[in-house]
């Protein structure tokens, strides 16, 4: 049979495509924006190898791996790195649990004040970090909770919940309600429906939300400053190192660790969600 004609300017998958390429002005603006965002990362990588330990002269007088060897033997760096990973994992776990439950409830039920509740869920990440940090510190002080490892975890979980919630609620809205109704009609109980129908549809959204929550928690500075006691996460350690005149490349080495740990989850989340514009059961 002859193939159906495709309307000009429209791709076969329904996406609109322009008939002409982008102009030089748009290309220049896009290139400039990418350089503005990513060029500082290149300088961090460069100065992690410099032989100069006091300044950031360009070009570097020489290149060396000495700072990586020194960072490997520094127990304070490993302690800060381990604390950051532990806090990020616990914050991510709490966010996955609470964010998923909140998304399921907001998707399933309609009630008076639903939009206000949605706003309150999104508020921790919409407000400036310093406002969130001060409010959390005040709340912990009023509740007479000593600042410790757990206050850092709770502080990070408040904004990580939003990341998971946004991913899950977006996936649920693209999933056909008929799937759940059909499962219940066939005799499945609520748990079986969640396990065999809902969970497979939101699995990649959960994984992507968890990865983004981990990355967001791992490099958090402002909220950690207000909720930590004597503990130092890796970003807080880096902030303290910047105030010292010696061994500045060590800070860049630590920044390389942060970039590596946060870059991989973000890339993983992107690849998990880029081909999910059509959720199961959402077809016409």
> Mean of the pLDDT scores?
78
- Which topology of one domain does CATH recognise? MetI-like fold
Estimate the strand proportion.
Answer: under 5%
The CATH architecture term of one domain is Orthogonal Bundle
Supply the CATH superfamily name of one domain. MetI-like
Question: Helix share of residues?
Answer: 55-70%
Question: Major β-sheet, in short?
Answer: none
Give the CA-based shape.
Answer: globular
Multimeric organization: single chain
N→C terminal distance: 23 Å
Number of helices: 11
Total E-strand runs: 0
Radius of gyration (Å) = 24 Å
Structural class: mainly alpha
Structure commentary:
The protein has helices spanning 24-47, 66-72, 75-108, 114-126, 129-142, 149-173, 177-185, 190-218, 222-227, 234-241, 248-273. It is mainly α and 284 residues long. The protein has a domain at 81-249 and 259-273: MetI-like (MetI-like fold, Orthogonal Bundle). α6 crosses α8 (190-218). The protein is globular and about 70 Å long.
Q: What order do the helices and strands come in, and which of them pair?
A:
Elements: H1 24-47, H2 66-72, H3 75-108, H4 114-126, H5 129-142, H6 149-173, H7 177-185, H8 190-218, H9 222-227, H10 234-241, H11 248-273
Helix pairs in contact: 1-11, 2-11, 3-6, 3-8, 3-10, 4-6, 6-8, 7-8, 8-11, 10-11
Core attributes:
about 280 residues, mainly alpha, MetI-like fold, 11 helices, about 70% helix, globular
At a glance:
The chain has 284 residues and is mainly α. It is built from eleven helices and no strands.
């Amino acid at each position: 049979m002859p193939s159906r004609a495709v309307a000009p300017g429209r791709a076969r998958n329904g996406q609109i495509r322009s008939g002409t390429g982008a102009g030089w002005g748009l290309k220049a603006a896009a290139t400039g924006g990418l350089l503005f965002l990513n060029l500082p990362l290149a300088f961090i990588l460069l100065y992690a190898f410099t032989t100069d330990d006091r300044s950031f002269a360009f070009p570097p007088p020489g290149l060396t791996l000495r700072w990586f060897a020194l960072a490997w033997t520094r127990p304070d760096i490993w302690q800060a790195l381990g604390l950051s990973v532990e806090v990020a994992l616990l914050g991510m776990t709490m966010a996955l649990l609470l964010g998923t439950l909140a998304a399921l409830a907001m998707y399933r039920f309609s009630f008076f004040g639903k939009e206000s509740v949605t706003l309150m869920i999104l508020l921790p990440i919409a407000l400036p970090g310093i406002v969130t940090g001060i409010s959390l510190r005040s709340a912990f002080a009023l509740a007479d909770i000593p600042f410790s490892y757990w206050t850092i975890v709770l502080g990070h979980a408040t904004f990580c919940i939003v990341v998971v919630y946004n991913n899950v609620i977006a996936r649920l809205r693209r999933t056909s309600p008929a799937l759940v109704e059909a499962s219940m009609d066939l005799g499945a109980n609520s748990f079986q429906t969640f396990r065999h129908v809902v969970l497979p549809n939101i699995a990649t959204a959960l994984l992507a939300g968890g990865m983004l929550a981990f990355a967001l928690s791992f490099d958090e500075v402002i909220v950690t400053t207000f909720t930590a006691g004597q503990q130092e996460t890796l970003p807080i350690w880096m902030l303290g190192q910047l105030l010292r005149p010696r061994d500045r490349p060590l800070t860049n080495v630590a920044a390389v660790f942060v970039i590596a740990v946060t870059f991989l989850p973000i890339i993983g989340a992107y690849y998990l969600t880029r081909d999910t514009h059509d959720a199961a059961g959402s077809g016409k």
